[in-house]
Structure formats: C-alpha cells, structure tokens
Amino acid sequence: MTISFYSEGIHFDLKQKIRHKQWVRDCIYSNQKIQGNISFIFISNEQLRLMNQEYLNHNYFTDVLTFSYAEKDIISGDIFISIEQVRINAKLFGAVAEEELRRVMIHGVLHLMGFNDSLPEEQAIMRKKENEALHLWLKPV
Fold it and tell me: Which residues form the domain of 33?
C-alpha cells in the first residue's frame, strides 16, 4: 500500500516526501486504521473549483477535495489540494504555508477516515484531530 504525491497542471514539488509519508502513516495508525493507497494530487485553484462544481455542485474555491475508496478500516483515496488556495489561507490565517499545507493534507486524510466537518461539533472534533496530527509532525524523527 502506498502514499503518492502528484502535481497536475501546476509546478509544485512537495519537500520531505519520505517524512510526509511516514507522518501520514503515523496519523492513520494513531486512529486505529490501516493505510491503503492514498494519492495527494496538487492542482490549481481553478481546477479544484471546477471539480468542486462537477462533483459536489458547489461553485466556489476550496483548498481540498477528498474522494474515499476506504473499505472498513483500510484508508484509501485521492486527495486533491489547491496549492494556491493553501497559500491564500496561510496568509489569511497568519500561518506558514508549509504548516497550512500539512493541515489541509491531514484534513483530507481525516475525511478518508470518516471524520466530517459539516456541523459545529464535527468541526471542533476535526480541528482537534488536525492539531493532534500536526503535533505528530513536530516529534523528533
């Protein structure tokens, strides 16, 4: 089972790929799940807006769309991320772009694990899980 990184239509190369893969695995295992095949696809803002419109009927920009292929506790899926929107959000929230990217990446993984963020109480749980995952990144390698 693999974790893969791609960019389509933009030039973006994720730094520390091996560390990111291990971090995602650690986050999945810490939630008592099994890592399957997960692809992170980095695309443009416009590409993601069009996908959001086509698949969810939402005509607005977003930072991440997740398509789950999970079966029981085996977490698999495609996570599409707009690097442009991540950078915009980082400025808006006063965050470092790399940290905001990790938050968005793990947000997608949490969706694959079955966490939602439609309701305020779900959003609170999602934010807590994101923060737990970000703390795992900070642990010494």
Answer: 3-138
